[in-house]
Amino acid sequence: MKKIKTSKKDMKDNLYIVGIGYCNAQQLLKAFDPIAYSAGRDGWACDYYNVDDVIISTGYSYIDSKRTKHTYKQLKAVELKADAIWSDYSLTYKQRLSKVKRLMKKFLNDSIKRYKESKEV
Q1: What is the CA 109 to chain-centroid distance, rounded?
Q2: DSSP 3-state assignment of 8?
Q3: What pLDDT digit, counting tens, does each position of 47-87 carry?
Q4: pTM, whole model, 2 decimals?
């Protein structure tokens, strides 16, 4: 699938955004294709992934999280789990792909839940 060029302003209109620094979720994102990218004066800025209507922005100059909340420690733990799944060659590729996609969806749902809980306090 070919990525389209878009502006950060257009992407910020989305309800949920998870901002992830460059190379911090390589194993998680391996299961998904980017839908778009943004570029600035200095060239490529970030890629965007759409997972269940949550936009993941990742790159050198990504969009900060919006209505989601996660820590680097939480992301790193999920990334290590994804790496372990991809390294488990007792599973077929389809099984590994399915497990990583479920792991990503759980991470995103947890990020939305943490945001909502932080606003209730």
Answers
A1: 12
A2: helix
A3: 999 999 999 999 999 999 999 999 999 999 999 999 999 99
A4: 0.91
| Type of residue at 69 | K
Q: What is the C-alpha to C-alpha distance for residues 51 and 104, in angstroms, rounded to an integer? A: 8
Residue 121 resides in a domain: no
**Residue 96 belongs to a domain:** yes
In the prediction, which pLDDT does 113 show? Answer: 96
Dihedral of the alpha carbons of 111, 113, 118, 121, in degrees to the nearest 10: -170
Residue spans of alpha helices (H) in 20-92: 26-29, 72-86
Would you call 63 helix, strand, or coil by DSSP?
Answer: coil
Nearest-angstrom CA–CA distance, 99 and 41: 38
The verdict on residue 95 lying in a domain is yes
The whole domain housing 43 covers: 4-115
Give the separation between CA 47 and CA 5, rounded to whole angstroms: 9
| Total residues found in the chain within this entry | 121
Closest C-alpha to 28, from 89, 108, 93: 108
Beta carbons of 25 and 75 less than 8 angstroms apart = yes
